[in-house]
């Protein structure tokens, strides 16, 4: 075989690109294969959740996020000027929704940890720029057709307009979406619920958009719809069933028919700029690793889009997997480390699948679902309930189970500069290159000395006050110690570095 790489990533969407970035920062030779000739122009996710946004900022993409947010806010301003909708007022009071029920900000913990108003197209551009700067090779119009796992690697084959291709890699990562070819060919089980409804997201020119106001989620006797917060953007949930051919292009006539029936408004769709449809099937892979094949993002889990959790879930998958796989490729840790990827990320996906199923359930138009929805709406007026749902929807309730390690080990609050006495240490600044970090508050740097003798993959930073913390490359705290104590630090270093 003429060519080899360490890892082949299938899929150049956001999850595939971030996986490739993480691997490259870890010193791994990566090839990304993508079926499409160019990034999709269809409107998908409109924002990125806090944990995913933090992961991007830790890898040098903060400036791109600021630029894309400014572009998004400018478009939203156009919508405000056209409709008079008070988007700023809503944004000041609320941070997302649960089945269309708005989540109040005033009861939240850590309200500064927010979603980034970056759409999926803008996000893909940011990630593509970062990957390009790192020298990541992305080959488009390469449709993977076959792979065969050997004892020491995987032979991957693909078709392209330039002719067939073949390469040997040590590991294969499927980031190729909900209909993942990698998942199917590798034999992963993908159990879950069958589709019952159809979702639409479109950008359309509507003759009387004012008839679809006020802005917000509208539950009717036939479905759910929402207009805005950008001109022409329409989201619909149709409970009438699933289309005969989900792969067929979305047409202007179809959108108009569904919109008029669900909204009850006398409107016409004059033109369709873009449109996508998908079903509410909910599925989760039995494991995220099978031999030398791994899954991330929608290849590992699919669910309804309520709360915009899917993109963020996949990006944090990539942040968790990338540094671990890089450590295995470098030969510093055994491949059993990859089992922690499934152990940590699959329960998070289970929780997301559960809450999206619940959201669809209380949006259905029958009286029983309506009664349950009213009950949930009343409960959400309680601060504790509002706070619990807010943390669930923002992903901030996630804690990885580290077994016998210390009780104070948990997820680092990665987006907030860590104030340590007189020192103000930002993880965004010290984690750009994908290294782990030790925030060392011990006298004489005892903890730093121990770390330096064990690994070169951790940057030691002296801080004024404790606790000292060993932080994994994905910004999860792996160890914490008070004073000059280093009990458990060696064990954590062996386990993670």
Defining key terms:
497 residues, alpha+beta, FAD/NAD(P)-binding domain, Alpha-Beta Plaits, Glutaredoxin, 14 helices, globular, FAD, FAD binding, FAD/NAD-bd_sf, flavoprotein, FAD-bd
CATH class of the largest domain: Alpha Beta
Reported CATH architecture of the largest domain: 3-Layer(bba) Sandwich
Question: Unreliable runs, pLDDT <50, ≥5 residues?
Answer: 405-422
- As a whole number of angstroms, the C-alpha radius of gyration is 23 Å
Kindly identify the CATH topology of the largest domain: FAD/NAD(P)-binding domain
Distance between the termini: 33 Å
Number of strands: 24
* CATH H-level homologous superfamily name of the largest domain: FAD/NAD(P)-binding domain
Strand content: 15-25%
The rough form would be described as globular
Q: How many helix segments? A: 14
- Could you give a short account of the major beta sheet? 8 strands, mixed
Q: Roughly what is the average pLDDT, rounded to an integer?
A: 91
The helicity comes to: 25-40%
Number of domains: 3
Query: What structural class results from the helix and strand content?
Result: alpha+beta
Cofactor: FAD
Organism: Paraburkholderia phenazinium
Protein name: 2-polyprenyl-6-methoxyphenol hydroxylase
GO molecular function: FAD binding; oxidoreductase activity, acting on paired donors, with incorporation or reduction of molecular oxygen, NAD(P)H as one donor, and incorporation of one atom of oxygen
């Amino acid at each position: 075989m003429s060519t080899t790489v360490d890892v082949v990533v299938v899929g150049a969407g956001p999850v595939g690109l971030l996986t490739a970035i993480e691997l490259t920062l870890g010193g791994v030779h990566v090839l990304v294969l993508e079926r499409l000739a160019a990034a999709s122009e269809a409107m998908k996710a409109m924002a990125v959740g806090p944990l995913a946004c933090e992961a991007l900022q830790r890898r040098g993409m903060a400036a791109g996020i600021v630029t894309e947010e400014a572009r998004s806010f400018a478009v939203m301003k156009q919508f405000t000027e056209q409709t008079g909708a008070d988007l700023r007022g809503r944004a000041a009071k609320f941070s997302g929704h649960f089945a269309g029920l708005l989540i109040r900000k005033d009861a939240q913990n850590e309200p500064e940890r927010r979603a980034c108003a970056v759409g999926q197209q803008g996000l893909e551009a940011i990630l593509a720029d970062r990957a390009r700067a790192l020298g990541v090779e992305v080959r488009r119009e390469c449709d993977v057709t076959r792979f065969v796992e050997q004892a020491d690697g995987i032979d991957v084959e693909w078709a392209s307009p330039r002719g067939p291709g073949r390469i040997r890699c040590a590991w294969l990562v499927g980031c190729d979406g909900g209909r993942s070819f990698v998942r199917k060919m590798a034999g992963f089980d993908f159990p879950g619920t069958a589709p019952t409804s159809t979702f639409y997201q479109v950008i359309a020119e509507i003759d009387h958009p004012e008839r679809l106001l006020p802005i917000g989620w509208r539950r009717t006797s036939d479905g759910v719809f929402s207009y805005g917060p950008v001109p022409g953007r329409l989201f619909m949930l149709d409970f009438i069933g699933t289309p005969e051919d989900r792969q067929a292009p979305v047409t202007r006539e179809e959108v108009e028919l569904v919109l008029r029936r669900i909204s009850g408004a006398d409107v016409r769709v004059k033109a369709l700029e873009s449109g996508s449809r998908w079903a509410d099937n909910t599925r989760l892979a039995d494991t995220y690793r099978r031999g030398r094949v791994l899954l991330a993002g929608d290849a590992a889990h699919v669910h309804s889009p309520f709360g915009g959790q899917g993109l963020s879930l996949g990006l944090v998958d990539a942040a968790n997997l990338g540094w671990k796989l890089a450590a295995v490729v470098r030969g510093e840790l055994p491949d059993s480390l990859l089992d922690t990827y499934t152990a940590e990320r699959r329960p998070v996906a289970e929780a997301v699948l559960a809450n999206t199923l619940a959201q669809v359930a209380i949006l259905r138009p029958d009286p029983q679902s309506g009664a349950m929805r009213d009950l949930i709406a009343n409960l959400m007026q309680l601060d504790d309930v509002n706070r619990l749902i807010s943390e669930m929807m923002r992903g901030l309730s996630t804690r990885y189970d580290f077994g016998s390690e210390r009780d104070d080990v948990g997820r680092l609050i990665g987006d907030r500069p860590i104030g340590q006495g007189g020192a103000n240490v930002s993880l965004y600044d010290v984690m750009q290159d994908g290294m782990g970090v030790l925030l060392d508050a011990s006298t004489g740097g005892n903890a730093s000395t121990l770390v330096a003798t064990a690994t070169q993959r951790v940057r030691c930073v002296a801080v004024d006050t404790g606790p000292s913390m060993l932080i994994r490359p994905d910004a999860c705290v792996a160890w914490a110690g008070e004073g000059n104590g280093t009990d458990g630090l060696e064990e954590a270093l062996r386990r993670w570095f």
